[in-house]
Structure formats: structure tokens, C-alpha cells
Design brief:
The chain is mainly α. About 50% of the residues lie in helices and about 5% in strands. It has a two-stranded antiparallel sheet with strand order 1-4. Strand 2 and strand 3 form a beta hairpin. It binds protoporphyrin IX containing FE. Protoporphyrin IX containing FE binds next to helix 5, helix 6 and helix 10.
Length: about 270
Amino acid sequence: MPAQTILRMVGIPEEDIEAIKKWCYDRLKVSFGCQTPEEQMFAVDRMTQLFGYLENFVEERAKEPRDDYTSGLLRIAAEEDSDLKVEEIVSMIYSLSFAGHETTTNLIANGLRQILSRPGLWKLLREDPSLLENTVEEMLRFDSSVIAWRRMTKKTVEIAGVEVPEGARIFLLLGSANHDESVFEGPEKFDIHRENANKHIAFSHGIHFCLGAPLARLETRIALELLTRRLPDLRLAPADQRFEFAANAQFRGPTKLWADWSPTRAKAEAIR
Ligand code: HEM
């Protein structure tokens, strides 16, 4: 669902969405992944294919603009005093074609895992959808899909008594900060009623704060709202399934999440 949303917004033709989704999974594995040189070469080849595809796509839109985000950017680039270059647009679309869905898809999967493995929570959310907004925040805090990010220091700084020199490359553990016991009481408890759940830094902080945060929050809430309403007896199947994750230090989400529900109840809900 997140892939369909962002890629349609960008203007990618419907028939290519599935292929892009697959290419992005390779990109996820190679970014801070743990791959053999052969696997890295394979993934980089796929990423190059994706970049080439997007270069052609932007070129097509420049010739024949439509009502989509890419054509909008190209219109801005064509303005007389515009600083925006076509190569930058390709790069932006390349970035969005990954950041705009893998992250949110994984958040929904991480959240479903946490909710469905706690008896009674699914029913509670179905009966009281007003709890969903804070539930999404607690999902982001407790089990986010982007658990680390990169930074480089612009000047020497002191962090918690440690001097970090200028130009140091830092790997920020956002997931760990979201379990900081000095900010969150009982951080290892998944608590959808937590009053300060939204004090997490899952979308980072500062001028590079995630551009897609409002969209990610909206999509996740809608996904939960529809699923709780239309699949009222959704459950993990088997309940004690073992989750596997792509070997990756930055992006986190189960490669598979098996669930079951009763089709007749789902059908009745869909008709209602
Ligand atoms: C649960 C979903 C998401 C999470 C956890 C997430 C997390 C993040 C994080 C941690 C950053 C790094 C910011 C930094 O450098 O400090 C970021 C940046 C970014 N995100 Fe997201 N993101 C999500 C969804 C999205 C979506 C849906 C979009 C697009 C529609 C998006 C687009 C971007 C972009 C373009 C940036 C770069 C911003 C910049 O450097 O100025 N993200 N995101």
C-alpha cells in the first residue's frame, strides 16, 4: 500500500510498480547490510537499473508532463530563475522511490507484530479507533523501521561527557534513543496509552527531519483502522512464529509476517 501511494504520486506507471518494489528491496539489503561481494554486485546492478529507469522516466515526463509530482518539479526547473536541475529531480525521485515506502511498509509490519502478539489489543483498537493515533506513535517509538542514521560532525562537540571531533562519522542509534529510560518510563513496555509516546526521534531531528513523516503517520493509521474494522479476528498464524529480518543495521522489518483471519467475518465487515 505505501509503495502504491508514493509511486502513483510520483507518476510511475501502474505496471512498473511491482518491479520498482523489488529493486528497492535489493537497495535495502545493500545499504548497511551484511552481504557477500557477489550479493553486493547483484544489488548494485539492480540499483543502477532503477536509476536508469528513473532517468528515462523523468525524461519522458519532461517531454509530456502530466498531473504528478515529477511533472510539478520539472515545471519548477523550467522556470527562468530556477536553481533546480533535472539531475537533481532524478535523484529526488530515486530517493523517494525507496524512502517513501520500504520505511512505512516495515513500520506497519513491526506494529502488527507487536499488537497481534498482545492478547486483546486488536479488539481494543477496533472498538476504540481514537486510540490509533497514539498507537502509531508508540509503534514508532517501540519498534521503528529506521533504527539508525548517519551524521558527520561540523565542529567538535561534547556529547554526554565524550568529546567528538570535527568531521567524525557518527552512526546514530535512533532505536536505542527511543528506549531511553530517562525519557520513557518502562521503555521496554509496548504501551499504546503512553502519554509521551510522540517524544520519540524515529523521524530524526533538525533540518533533515523526515520529509514523509505526516504521510507515514497517515498511511499507518489508515492501514490499522481498515484492518481492525475489516479483519476483526486477524491473528498471527502460527502465534509463536519466528520472525526473520534482512541482515541490515539501519532498516528494520520482518521479511514475512504470517496471519490468519476468518473470511466470512471479513466479508460481513466489508459489506457493512
Ligand atoms: C515510518 C516511516 C518512516 C520513517 C521511520 C522515516 C525515517 C526517516 C529518518 C530517520 C530520516 C533521516 C533524517 C535525518 O537525516 O536526520 C528520514 C529522512 C527522509 N525521509 Fe523518512 N521515514 C519514513 C517515511 C518516509 C516517507 C513516507 C517518505 C516520503 C514520502 C520519506 C522521505 C524522506 C526524505 C525525503 C528524507 C530526507 C530528508 C532530508 O534529508 O532533508 N520518509 N526519514
